[in-house]
Amino acid sequence: MYVQIETEKNVENESILVDLRSDTLSKPTKAMRMAMLNAELGDDVYGEDPTVIRLEEKAAKLLGKEAALFVTSGTMGNLIAIMNHCDVRGSEAYCGEESHTMLHEQGGAAQIAGVTLCPLANNRDGTFDLKKLELKIKGDRQHEPISKLVIVENTFNGKIVPQTWIQDLAKITRKHSLKLHMDGARLWNASVGSDVPVAEIVSEFDSVTFCLSKGLGSPAGSLLCGSKSFIEKARRGRKVLGGGMRQVGVLAGSGLVSLEEMVPLLKEDHRRAAKLAKAINDLGSKAFSVDLNEVQTNMIFVNISSEKVTSADFVQRLKSVESDDPDDKIIVRGLALTPTSARFVTYYEINDELVDAAIRKFSYVVKQLE
Ligand SMILES: Cc1ncc(COP(=O)(O)O)c(C=O)c1O
User: What integer is the mean pLDDT of 264-281?
Assistant: First the structure.
């Protein structure tokens, strides 16, 4: 089907704008807007919105789970999963110390669910040391919290978590009767990037959240997937968090288009990210480089090893225009994540023309800052 690529907002003050801060910037396509307009609606708190039901059934089927629940966001999906799996006071959940749940969900596990998060040092590929995990799992001592859940993020900073590690992890969680949840905000990138069906990626997991509003282009919404009883309980959790929405088929309609039309396009996002990363390395700079092994989906991290320039300086220079040179006039936006690392993310609106423009600006700035 036809996907409208909208580039009208990419021109700012006669400069070309290439906004690579996040794939969450992607806007709904024409097909999504039409689906919103035409969606069959009902009150979803009564379970009567036919479009939401279609989306939930489709998500569950694709992931090989019994059921799914449409939730407002990835954060809500992860929190409900934590609330569900850690339903005894004094519960503990394990996750990577650099994971979104640990760092960017406001400590909702503690704040709202009353659950302790126990962080484990992340390896670069998103895994953590399974021996260290096992050492952290608590026995039945009254002094300690009750071990309940392990959370895995996939993709992790754009990297696909190795399936063999997931299998080893699952052996441990089974042995200790722990539940497994995947924060699969970008699960579809992991599937397209590894050529492994989503159902296989998540087969060991008791629950999974995935997002429609990142590379899949929808304006909002995530799906929490799991067993029938898990999802029934999740529906109560969603309500208490204020996530019970009414004629929300307007969003679910867009979500269906995301799953049907946007997933195949992720391959192009990955190709373009790889092209951009290679072009940066081809500049031969000592100060600015990308580890190409880590460009597995739609994210690029530029490593900055310079005594003079921080990633904040680099990002600032990329988005500023200081001369009349047509290459300098291109505005590139990215995120300075640490003093030595800047992130750039592709999504469907970042077409080849915009990638080429970004490469021109990177080349201009790298030569200037070196
Ligand atoms: C890995 C990961 N998990 C969860 C989330 C939360 O998603 P939301 O912004 O929909 O709450 C994000 C958001 O960027 C994310 O990157």
Answer: 98
